[in-house]
Design goal:
Radius of gyration: 16 Å
Number of domains: 1
Number of strands: 7
Strand order of the largest sheet: 1-2-5-4-3
CATH superfamily: NADH:ubiquinone oxidoreductase Nqo5 subunit
Number of helices: 3
CATH class: Alpha Beta
Distance between the termini: 47 Å
Helix content: 10-25%
Structural class: alpha/beta
Strand content: 25-35%
Largest sheet: 5 strands, mixed
CATH architecture: 2-Layer Sandwich
Length: 151
C-alpha cells in the first residue's frame, strides 16, 4: 500500500484521525482514547499487517505529552507512525500495546520510568533504569535536580 492508500483505509476505520505528511513516514495523529482500537486494527487487518513495532517513545510539549509509535509491516513493506496526545500532563495515562507487540513491554517501562506515563493494563509496570525511590521523571521538561546546570 502507498501512504495515500493507508491514509484512506485508516480514515475509513477512524474518521477522527488526522495526518501529518511532512516527514519521511505517514504520521497519524489520534487522541489517546482512540489509540488501542487503532493499534489492534493496524496489527490484525491483513491490508495493514503492522507486525513490527520498532520504536515507542514520548515527547513532552510542556502542555501535554505525545506518545509516538513507529511500526513496520514486513510482509507489505510499509511504515507508519502513530502519535497519540495525552492531554492530562499531571496524570498521564494511556492503554498498553504490549499485548499487541511484545516488544512494547520494555519500551513502555522505559517511558514510565523517564516520563511518568502510566500504561493501563500493563502486566509489569515498574521502573527499569532508576531506583524505586527516585523522585520525579528525568525526561520531563519540568524535572529539576540539584545537580543540573542551568544554561
Amino acid at each position: 500500500m502507498t501512504p495515500e492508500e493507508i491514509k484512506l483505509s485508516v480514515s475509513e476505520l477512524f474518521p477522527n484521525a488526522t495526518y501529518d505528511e511532512t516527514g519521511e513516514f505517514l504520521n497519524v495523529l489520534t487522541d489517546s482514547k482512540d489509540l488501542k482500537p487503532m493499534m489492534i486494527a493496524l496489527r490484525s487487518k491483513k491490508e495493514f499487517d503492522f507486525d513490527y513495532l520498532f520504536c515507542l517513545t514520548c515527547i513532552d510539549w510542556k502542555t501535554h505529552l505525545t506518545m509516538v509509535y513507529h511500526m513496520l509491516s514486513k510482509s507489505n513493506n510499509h511504515t507508519i507512525v502513530i502519535k497519540a496526545k495525552i492531554a492530562d500532563i499531571n496524570k498521564p495515562e494511556i492503554e498498553t500495546v504490549c499485548d499487541i507487540w511484545e516488544t512494547a513491554n520494555f519500551h513502555e517501562r522505559e517511558v514510565f520510568d523517564l516520563f511518568g506515563v502510566k500504561f493501563l493494563n500493563h502486566p509489569d509496570l515498574r521502573r527499569i533504569f532508576l531506583d524505586d525511590e527516585w523522585d520525579g521523571f528525568p525526561l520531563r521538561k519540568n524535572y529539576v535536580d540539584e545537580n543540573m546546570i542551568e544554561i
